[in-house]
Every structure is written in C-alpha cells, then in structure tokens.
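Database export, one record per block. Field names are fixed; values are copied verbatim from the stored entry.
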Amino acid sequence: MGEIRNFKSGNQDEPPPHGVMPRRLAAIIVGDIASYSRLMQVDEEGTHVRVKRIERDLIQPSIVEHHGSLVKTTGDGFIAIFDSPVEAVRCSIVIQQNLVGRNASLPKDTRIEYRIGVNLGDVIVEPDDVYGDGVNIASRIEGIAEPGQVYISGAIYEQIKHKVVCGYESLGDRKVKNITDPVRVYRVLPDADAVGKTRGRRENVLLVLLSITVMMIAAGVLWYLLAQPGRVGQQAAAPAVSPVASPSPEPSPREAAVQTPQPSPSLASSPPPAPVSSPSATPLREPELIAIRGGSFAMGSNDDPTERPVHQVTVKPFSIGKYPVTVQEWNECAAAKECGFAAIGNDDAPVTNVSWTDAQQYVAYLAKATKRAYRLPSEAEWEYAARGGTSTKYWWGDKLQPGMAGCKDCGAAASEQPVKVGSFKPNPFGLHDMGGGVDQWVEDCWHKTYQGAPTDGSAWSGGDCSSHVLRSGSWKNDSRYVRPSNRDGYDTNVRYPTHGFRVALSP
C-alpha cells in the first residue's frame, strides 16, 4: 500500500538534455464518465461530490493496490499508467465491478458509470502528464466502450490472454480518429459465466435467423406447388407433411456456459476444461480434515502494519482441510452444476482462479451433499492452524529453509502453476500448504489492521465486505508471504490465478 501520487520521472530539478524526452513502455488506462454533461446539468454540486468520492475511495486506492500511478484526473475521467498490463486490466475490472455495487440501489438515470480503455504503448512521460500515440489509442478505445465496460487493445490482449482469468470478445479491427493503422479491440468479460452467456445469445440469434430462413423457403415452395394447374387436388390427396423441421431446443445460459471452457483466459487459445464425471457416476469426495484442539495464541506480528496490533485470541475446537481444495474436488461440484465453472489442471493440484464467492458456492454444495456444516475457516482459525502451536516467524523456525513451502524463493524449482497438494512437509498439526502453494480465502471481510478485531476466533464480518481476506501466499510470491501472520485482501467477486481455499468444519 502507498499514497496516491502523480507519476514522476527522474530528478524534476534537472531538465532532460535538449531534444531528449523521458519515454517508457507502459500500460495506459483512460477512464471517462458516460453522460457526464447530463448528470452535471441535473445536479452539478451533487455530481461533483459523488465523482470526487469515487476517485478518492475507489479509483485511487485501486490504482495503488495494483501497483500503478495516477497521472491525472480530468474532471470527468482519469489517466493512469502501469508497468504491468496484467495489473492494468485487473485494476480496470475491479473499478467496474465495484461501481456496479455502488450503483445497484440508484435509479438508472443517476448512476455514475465509467467507460474504460486500456492500451500498451511507448509514451512520453512528464511530471504531471503523459503523451503519445499509446495514450491517444487508449483514449479512442475508451470512447467506443460501452458504459460499465472495459475495452482493451490487441497489444494488451497479447500480453494478458494467458494470465488474467476472464473472457474476451473480439470486436475486430477499428479505425480510430487520428491513428493511421486500424486497432484490434477486445471487450473484457470479467465474469467467466458471461463468456457462455455471450456465446449462448449468439447461438440463439443464429437459430432464430435459420428458422426464419427455412420457413420462408418452405412457404415459397408451398406457394409454387399450390399455384400449379392440376396440382391442388394432388396436394390435397397427398399425406400432410410439415414443411419445417423443428429446430433443436435453444441452450439455456447455464448449458451454454458449460459448453464454453471455464474460466477462460482466451476464447481462442484456451485448452478445454478437464472432463468431469456426473455426480451419479462418481461418489462425493469429502476433503480430508484434521481436528484442531482449541487454544489461545498471539495473533498477528509487527512485521507489517496490516498485521498489527498483536492480540490474544482464543479459538474453539474445529476441523480444517488437510490440503487446499483440489481440482478434482472442485470439478465434482461443477459436474453437479453447483459451482460456476469447470477447473482445468491436474486432479491433485489445488484449484485456482477462484473468487471468494466461488469458494462459498463450493462449501454450500459440500454442506448440502453431506448434511454437515462446512464453511470457510475464520482468519483466526487459519492462523492458529498455520502456526501449528509455534510462535516463530515460520512454523519451522525464524529462518527460511529450502523445501518447506512452495514460493518463488523457497528453494523449489520455479513453476508456472502450483504443484500437487501435499508436496511439502506438514506443519506440527499435520496440515500441508499452510504457507505457499495457493492464496487461500477465509471467511472474514478485509480490514486494514486488527484494531477492533474479535478475540474469540470468530470471523470478522463487520465493515465493508466488498473485499475479503486471503492467507498463505502463493507459488508466485516470495517468502514474506509464507509467514503464518501474513494477510492480504482482494475483491470478493474477482477471480485471480493464484487464489484457492480450504474448508473448515465446526464440531
């Protein structure tokens, strides 16, 4: 976390050499409010206050959290730059999804909705602004975007298509103002289900058009036959034949979503999901649990402001998954149509690309199928279990040891995906991957510190629950994230490639 700042480059007291301008390759976000003039005309002061509040509470923090820099605000919009195209698109999705929540209770004609365009380009950077074709293209893409949507250029798409968990709808090459070459444009579909729904709508339209065409042809043939002399009596004597075969039933949105690879980094290049068996053919595999005796411990640390203050917590007895939920376990839920997508990957690998809402779908499915009160662990339960009765920096001691956890600098070979569950030693409670492997959702809403946190081990549900807590760190993080006290928050409904979870159960 850090303060929002306008982008600065180099020593501002020393101008660049004559003829040399500071340049950099950057992912550029341009956002603009749809129908801003109309909103200002209806309620000038109220609209101004609302826009400034959105900038302060949503747009600026989202840019910082995704490691970007705010270049400037423009009254009815903003420009930001990022080193990472992935983070730029993630930030754009988060902004739009949070605006949906803010607008839900408002009349449609009073909602503040942004159009967002994202492009990758070589730009000229000045202390308080940024220039170049890269910015112009981002601005033009934003201009053709629909309110509430994120549109990206082909340059961004090529960088993120295997990295950001969402769908993409190609809008083809677009000729944009003052840009010589056409620009390939894609619409981002952050909800994986939207991919199937979009495809389902297209298939439905095609079916309707096909049916109309067949009916017109059949009507023409029938008219021709009836119009021929001497044919009327023959037609009357002939057996009646339906001129049009009934089209096959249109797929429902859920069926259309199942037909589409889910979740899909790219509609064009993703492999199909791993096959899943029907619930009738495959018995339910309950996650293996470890019973944890209750007790008291010092929760938190002084290593990071979000982990303070250190406070004493008493946890009641509970059980928790020995491993994170696996691809195979998740896909049983998907096969039962209780979880929103079929996961890809090895059956014994932890499931990833899971939002907090997705994780809740799985525990609800498990509870329904087993008649047991499955849930996500509370943040306090997770840390208590991860420490395994220890009070050191890591559960094995105060120094990092190779081969104890799956992280970027934990001594394991670098990988593009998490290894199978249980690949590393268990902690003293017999739990695997309680640090590294995959980030793990817990029940609690995100709070920036522990000030006011419950001390009885229960989940902290008060406050703003648009974000929830993640624990463990992942194979893509460094060893700082493997500490049992490490904590982070992420948007409740957004999927991300390193996010998974494990289940818990009260006695």
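Remark 1: Residues 390 and 396 are 8 Å apart (CA to CA).
Remark 2: The radius of gyration is 27 Å.
End of record.
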